[in-house]
Amino acid sequence: MRRWLPPTFLLFYFLFYLINVDSIELDFWSAEELMNARTLPGILGVLGLIVILLQLAIQTINPSTKASGADDSDPNISLSEPQATQNSASNLTRAQRLFQGLRQRTLETHGRTLALSAFFLVYIFLIDALGFTIASIVFLLIAPWLIGHQRPLTCIGVSLGIPLGLAVLFDLLGIYLPSGQWLG
Amino acid sequence: MIDGLLLGAATAFTGINFALIGLGCLAGMFIGMMPGLGPISAIALLIPVSYALAPESGMMMLAGVYYGAIFGGSTSSILLNAPGVAGTVATAFDGYPMARSGKPGQALAIAAYASFAGGTIGVVLLMLLAPQLATVALSFQSPEYLMLMVLGLCLVFAFADDGDRLKALLMVLFGLSLATVGTDRASGLPRFTFGQMDLMDGISFLVLAMATFAMTEAVHMAAKARISTDQMPGFGFKTLVLPKNTTASIVPAVGRGSILGFFIGILPGAGATMASFLSYGLEKLFPSRAGPALGQGNARGLAAPESANNAACTGSFVPLLTLGIPGSGTTAILLGALIAYGIQPGPQLYVEMPSLFWSVVISMYVGNVILLFLNLPLIPYIAKVLMIPRTLLAPLILMFSVAGVYLVSFNLVDLILLTATTGVALLLRWGGYPMAPLLLGFILGGLLEDNLRRTLMLSQGDPNYFADRPLFLALGFITLALVCWPGGRFLVSQVKKRSQS
Question: Are B146 and B270 in contact (CB under 8 A)?
Fold first, then answer.
């Protein structure tokens, strides 16, 4: 999946991009110019499509190569197949144990990242509703707990100190921070 | 020149002016450390203060703010992988891995020394060559700029790992295509905006920089939050003393980066970003004898772009002070400040207001020294950012990324774009697609299109037009050599193998 999903995304992106080049409106005098608003996007779309097709062709011809440079460091991002399934069937107890351990860890990291991502989306809309400072206080209070921080006092200190400190700093610098829609 | 230097020193070393330079450096450094607030914001914030001062004092303070912001800008790149300005993107390539590998103090110290050296070499070159270089800058026209941009983009292709060249090229094209979103600068026509008014200004650099670097890093941190905790040895002042082998490896890199950075900096429009990327590319030509490879926490990979972007900032004063042409957004604001004082910068400034010209030059040197002494004692404390548990650091990075984007535009659409772009960046990183070429393509996209358009207008599509442009041809030859470099290297290795067998 890791080898095919990103290039497939890029293939669709460049296709979409190239199709939409024609939707760029031109005024009648720029249509006759040597270079107009469509020229560079057109070149980029065609080049992008050629290079991504080349990349896909190389991947197809040479299926043994893994996604070089891929980010293996992160079990959550890697989404790799559980390695235990590759173990021999003769060592089932060990394989099962490994599989369960990996599954639990993957679920744990996925759950944590998904929770953080979902709460990040809430944070974005809270900024609009409550303003940057209050939304950031709420975010910094809850987000660390969601990903496993176990010191509530530190959370409270950081969540109050940093957004309020920033608010004071911006006030001193004369930068206006809009209050949220819910607060008028 | 000696008279001018003495006049400048006499102006800069008065008590009030010296204090103003120090204050400007300090303010710039702290503002620059915050992701999203770069030198432009720092100078814009302090311009009202400068109006209450004499022109020399005001300009020296603003110049101090400029160096301070550039000096401080690398901190968030190194510690949080969150480059707030385009000029510090290349600093993160090796600075962040070095910091994460347990050497945050050393990484910050290398950045400080390299910035100091870059700034100082830049000032010396500025003093010696300013008037002569101004004419060189003028000989660079659209075709030469276009070829310089192409050279910068080709560096990414030439120096990528063997298996990653196509991926790097794809990311450059992806970045260039994202740069075309928004209003076309020549015709004023909207492109790929799909009727959304919020996309008329295009995608913000900060959105892309935060999404591809800081936000994806925070997600990684959150995923690993409970699996491991960072072991960070050595936060004391001992980290400020670099090992002999590190010093020996960075000295030539700083020299190369400073000289290249200064000469790129004098070209209006090229600026610190191009300088830092080119100097990083240049370092790839020199193999690492010891220590980690480039991109994995190599000291040269950190020192070269850091010295180059500081030298480029000094270089950008050449067209400003000698021709009255702002070479970057920051120098455009400084030009505005000069005009507000009733001073018209240009070739006559050097003659009519020598005290202003030379005091700004001297203030650059003084500012560099002040910044080094302000920065070094703070490094052990700043580096402790990395001791914050990942469970707390990841949400903090997310919040600062949001702050960097939102506090510039106050636009919810930018935040939604930030979230969507982070999703795409995570997908691409997962597949092993490098993020730096994407950002480079995006940064250079607008300039590339402008210069391509002007070049085509000037040449009317006639290839003979380029035959009379030696600079264009020289840059074209270097670009061609770089593109052929990987193929040539492969052929040589094959021939060697055959001859051995």
Answer: no
Residue among A25, A69, A148 whose CB faces B226 most closely: A148
Does A30 reach chain B within 8 Å, measured CB to CB?
yes
Using left for φ > 0, alpha for ψ between -120 and 50, and beta otherwise, residue B168 falls in alpha
* Percent of chain B as helix, strand, coil, to the nearest 5: 80, 0, 20
Q: Is A141 exposed, middle or buried (0-12, 13-18, 19+ CB in 10 A)?
A: middle
Range of the domain at A156: 92-173
Residues 108-127 of chain A whose Cβ lies under 8 A from any Cβ of chain B? 108-109, 112-113, 116-117, 120-121, 123-125, 127
Answer left, alpha or beta for residue B429, where phi above 0 means left and psi between -120 and 50 means alpha: alpha
Residues of B in contact with A182 (CB under 8 A): none
Report CA dihedral (B146, B149, B154, B159) to the nearest 10 degrees: 150
**Of B377, B105, B373, B381, which is closest to residue B243 (Cα–Cα)?**
B105
End-to-end, the C-alpha distance of chain B in Å comes to 64
| Burial class for B463, CB neighbours closer than 10 Å (0-12, 13-18, 19+) | exposed
Report phi then psi at B326, rounded to 5.
-80, 125
Q: What is the mean pLDDT of residues A81-104?
A: 53
SS3 B157: helix
Q: Could you read off the pLDDT of B241-258 as tens digits, one per residue?
A: 788 888 888 899 999 999
- Are B189 and A117 a contacting pair at CB < 8 A? no
Q: What is the pTM of this model?
A: 0.78
Residues whose CB is less than 8 angstroms from the CB of residue B276 and which lie 6 or more positions away in sequence, other chains included = B87, B88, B89, B90, B91, B261, B305, B306, B308, B309, B312
Any A CB within 8 A of B466 CB: no
For residue A77, tell me if it sits in a domain.
Answer: no
Token pair belonging to B397: 């990075």
Query: Does residue A115 form part of some domain?
Result: yes
Nearest CA among B159, B447, B380 for reference residue B287: B159
Instruction: Say if residue B220's pLDDT is above 70.
Output: yes
Taking residue B227's Cβ as centre, other Cβ atoms within 10 Å add up to: 13
Q: How many degrees, rounded to 5, is the angle at CA B298 between CA B116 and CA B443?
A: 70
Look up tokens 């051995």; give the residue.
Answer: B500
Distance separating the N- and C-terminal Cα atoms of chain A? 47
Q: B151 CB contacts (<8 Å, ≥6 apart)?
A: B278, B475, B478, B479, B482
* ipTM of model: 0.80
Chain length of chain A: 184
- Residue whose tokens read 């910050």: B108
> pLDDT value at position B475?
87
Number of domains chain A contains = 2
Contact B227 A178 (CB under 8 A): no
Closest Cα of chain B to A183: distance in Å?
A: 16
Q: Which of B320, B354, B315 is nearest to B336 (CA)?
A: B320
Instruction: List the one residue out of B24, B23, B102 whose CA is nearest residue B63.
Output: B24
> Which two structure tokens, joined as six digits, stand for A101?
């351990």
- Give the tokens for residue B489: 């290297």
Q: Does A171 touch chain B (CB under 8 A)?
A: no
Scored b (16 or more CB within 10 A) or e, B175-188 reads bbbbbbbbbbebbe
Mean per-residue pLDDT over chain B, rounded: 82
> For residue B427, which residues of chain A lie inside 8 Å, CB to CB?
5-6, 9
The answer to whether residues A39 and A103 belong to one domain is no
Residue B133, helix vs strand vs coil:
helix
pLDDT above 80 (res B115): yes
The answer, for B26 touching chain A at a CB cutoff of 8 Å, is: no
**Region of residue B286 (left: phi > 0; alpha: psi -120 to 50; beta: else):** beta
